[in-house]
Amino acid sequence: MNLRTHLAAIALAATGLFSTANAETIRVAIGTQDTTINTATGGLLIRELKLLEKYLPHDGKYQDVTYDVQWKNFTSGAPITNEQIAGKLDFGVMADFPGSFNGLAHLKAGRKSLFITVLSGSVNGSGNGIVVPVDSPINSLSQLKGKTISVPFASTSHGMLLRAVRAQGWDSESDVHIITQAPEVAGAALKANQIEAHADFVPFAELFPWRGIARKIYDGSQAKTPTFHGALVDAAYAEKYPEIVVAYLRAAIEADQLINKEPEKYSELIGKVTGVDAEVDYLFHGPLGLQTRDLTWKPEYRQAVATAIETLKSLKKADNSLDVDSFVDDRFIRAAFKASGLDYEAALKDYEQLPLNAKDASTGEPINDPKRVAEIWVRGEPLVRHYASPENALKALKSIEGEGKAVRVFYAQDRDSGIKLLGDQAWFVRADGGEVSAFLLKENAENWAKAHGGRVLDFASVKASILASN
């Protein structure tokens, strides 16, 4: 290199144009499940709001780095695992059951993955569910003996179904006929009465009833078995780029904070991107939702991983063992909490549902009992209206409809479990004094009526009873 060329190179380096040619390009490839709407804070919202770019490091060893951020969307966890093992993805978002399979599959391939955070879950198991065709005479799991039940194999709902069948004292191979079926196929099969029941993960046990093609007869919370969706990362990638892992988790924390503040707004965004109706998205992400968005590794979620590993081994889907304590790695989420100014230990101890801090939209009274809450989303209104009781909400519904306004959805909380329900799919008990309680299952409503008095009614009948008494 002559003196003139050397001086020119120095000048280019000073402008930054020459040095970037030799700078490292780091791939950040993330596999998401957009339609599995409870994973939104680990994928869809980060991508759509460009949150990851806010936190990727640009100092120290990352000073001259160029980031190649890649987003790939999948309908389930299994193909994400395949892509990770093929070296095409660095991060993956999936549930406890396929996530455990991910860890086992990496071991089989001579590699390792790490489960780095929970995104959303239920320590009681809500989120998975079983539905039947709309006109089916079946109202509970106990009536499914000898029936055909479809489920996406190797999914978290598959694990739930096997555990629920065992809890009935049945043999999963002889007492029921379990077949594999993806959600998109199951929807059509339910409409055509080609199957007698379908078990599925978020959001299909709610989406199918919302769209009028099925009825929910079983919620995973009845099994009292924890379930969650979370994020995994390739272990070698995490060791090489721990700051990037923390950046991803800080983006997830911000996504969680944003949807916590404005659940209706971001439920609409999720609906726009995925095609899963915003009314169903709010079931999960709104206050007192079906699941709790929770980024901490509670003991119950660690146990869910252990249970999934044992279930996979019993299904002969795994022939090696995965150490939960080394697979579940909370170092990165703890660092992300600290960098975001949050108290991880306090969050770890918090088991409450996402709170509802509101007053009754009709009476102005404080809302204190979460199991008595009901909500109405009026078409054209950006915010959901909250009520301290189902009877208050039903009276308001009468007025709203009397004004000629359209109602998008009526929500109620199950009086037993506290989970959020679609009102038109629920069963109600109206006591002699007028108090109304909502239930997912007809048998639970009947038990409540026997114990406390009152009549068991469907949604149309409880609406009519409120109308007749006013």
Instruction: Choose one word for the global shape.
Output: globular
Termini distance?
A: 94 Å
Could you give me the name of the CATH homologous superfamily of the largest domain? Periplasmic binding protein-like II
CATH class of the largest domain: Alpha Beta
Tell me, rounded to a whole number, the average pLDDT.
93
What structural category arises from helix and sheet content? alpha+beta
β-strand amount: 15-25%
CATH hierarchy: architecture of the largest domain: 3-Layer(aba) Sandwich
- Count up the helices: 19
Give the CATH topology of the largest domain. Answer: D-Maltodextrin-Binding Protein, domain 2
- The main sheet orders its strands as 2-1-3-10-4-11
Provide the domain count.
3
Radius of gyration of CA atoms, rounded to a whole number: 25 Å
Keywords: Signal
Protein name: ABC transporter substrate-binding protein
Organism: Mesorhizobium shangrilense
Notes on the protein architecture:
There is one protein chain. 40% of the residues lie in helices and 20% in strands. It is built from 19 helices and 18 strands. α10 packs across α11 and α11 packs across α12 (278-285). The protein has 3 domains: 3-123 and 227-349, D-Maltodextrin-Binding Protein, domain 2, CATH 3.40.190; 129-223, D-Maltodextrin-Binding Protein, domain 2 (3-Layer(aba) Sandwich), CATH 3.40.190; 370-468, no CATH class. With 470 residues, it is an alpha+beta fold. β14 and β15 form a beta hairpin.
